[in-house]
Amino acid sequence: MNQVDYLRISILDRCNFRCQYCMPEGEKLKYILGEELLTTTEIVTLLKQIFIPLGFSKFRLTGGEPLLHPGVVNLVREIASLPETEDLSLSTNGFLLADLARDLYDAGLRRINISLDSLNPQTFDKIIGNRGRSLWQQTWQGIEAAYEVGFDPLKLNVVVIPGINDREILDLAALSIDRNWHVRFIEFMPIGNMNLFQDRAWISSEELRQQIKGKWGLVESKIKGNGPADVFKIPSAKGTIGFISQMSECFCDRCNRLRLSADGWLRPCLLNQDNQIDLKTPLRQGLNREQLQEKVKGLLAIKPEINFKQRESGTSGSSYHRTMSQIGG
Ligand code: SAM
Ligand code: SF4
User: Fold this and answer.
1) Integer CA distances (angstroms), 200 to 131, 166, 280, in order
2) I need a surface site. Which of 85, 99, 214, 245 has the fewest CB within 10 A?
3) Looking at residue 226, what is its pLDDT?
């Protein structure tokens, strides 16, 4: 069993997009507001008092859309400057990145994952639920700004939805040829929008891999922060192509992560909310460092069992009470 040393930290659950696969259709989401949110100081305190002493050294800031958080650059600076931080990364939809890429880099961020589900502005707007002026161009500018500033690795995440963006697989894969961009295809999961999932289902990584291999050939590769992705490259390409196959493959035995929600709940597994624990209340009530650590140790002790239990019941189609934007994808 892997050492659990990676914490994904959702810093807010709000988002400026409403991606079809992430948010439920038509339903109004209830957002975590004001005092319910962990402050950036509380997040850093939790890292220093609990997670780092328990061996955590890899952190990812996510959301919702983390770049909507006014304190994101300062938080990056604080976490990047902790001597125990081995790896810090951030997931974003890229829309606000053109303005923030330089500040984030200067604050110490080096790794970034940007969602990009389509190269076609109309398809892109359809996926992100935008009916006004196209938001594709500004998102693309965000990706280019991150590249120019020097983020490395720069990963582009694509959730593949049958009949919506699956015709663009080769165009998206081709983004890895001329630049060291790392394109990662993620299998669509039954979380967030169950109606869409039931209508469209999902395409396996293997099918995508064969498509790309048929066009250019693929060789195995590696990249920093591989995580659960299987990584390949088109021969002589500068970047790589990764496949995240959480639907068709079980990588629970490789899972090294916990997830902290924006309101301070710690989850042992993406699919599990029964065993999550509240860290915000005891922190605010003044529980000492040892007492807080004991709570997390308890969760770590049951994590291996939960991983597989959730896997068996989780991906078979039961409904999840929170979306990826709420849990922190
Ligand atoms: N807003 C940021 C973004 O879009 O990258 C960060 C948060 S988002 C919840 C993190 C990741 O979760 C994105 O790569 C997104 O594509 C993925 N995601 C959301 N819903 C998903 C689903 N139903 N299946 C697979 N991936 C999903
Ligand atoms: Fe927002 Fe990211 Fe979810 Fe899209 S995937 S709705 S950008 S949180």
Assistant:
1) 21, 11, 38
2) 214
3) 63
Question: DSSP assignment, residue 47?
Answer: I
For residue 325, pLDDT over 60 is answered with yes
Q: Which ligand is nearest to the CA of 127?
A: 2
Instruction: Considering every ligand atom shown, identify the ligand nearest to the alpha carbon of residue 29 and give its number.
Output: 2
Rounded to an integer, the average pLDDT of 37-48 is 98
Per domain, the residue ranges of the chain are 6-327
* Cα of 296 from ligand 2 centre, angstroms: 28
Q: Which residue has the higher pLDDT, 72 or 229?
A: 72
What is the position in ligand 1's atom list of the atom closest to the CA of 197?
Answer: 23
CA angle 266–51–93, rounded 5-degree value: 60
- How confident is residue 317, by pLDDT bands cut at 50, 70 and 90? very low
| Mean pLDDT value across the chain | 91
Q: Which amino acid makes up residue 18?
A: R
pLDDT at 250: 79
Q: 116 CB under 6 A from ligand 1?
A: no
Note if the bond before 268 is cis, omega within 30 degrees: no
Other beta carbons within 10 angstroms of residue 117's beta carbon come to 25
Whether 290 shows a pLDDT value over 70: the answer reads yes
CATH 3.40.50.300 fits 6-327, yes or no: no
Q: Which ligand is nearest to the CA of 329?
A: 1
Lining ligand 2 with CB less than 6 A are: 15, 17-19, 22-23, 63-65, 93, 115, 324-325
Mutation to probe ligand 2, out of 12, 16, 17 (largest number of atoms < 8 A from CB): 17
How many A from CA of 155 to the centre of ligand 2? Answer: 16
* Half-sphere exposure in the Cβ direction for 246 (13 Å, CA): 26
pTM above 0.90, yes or no: yes
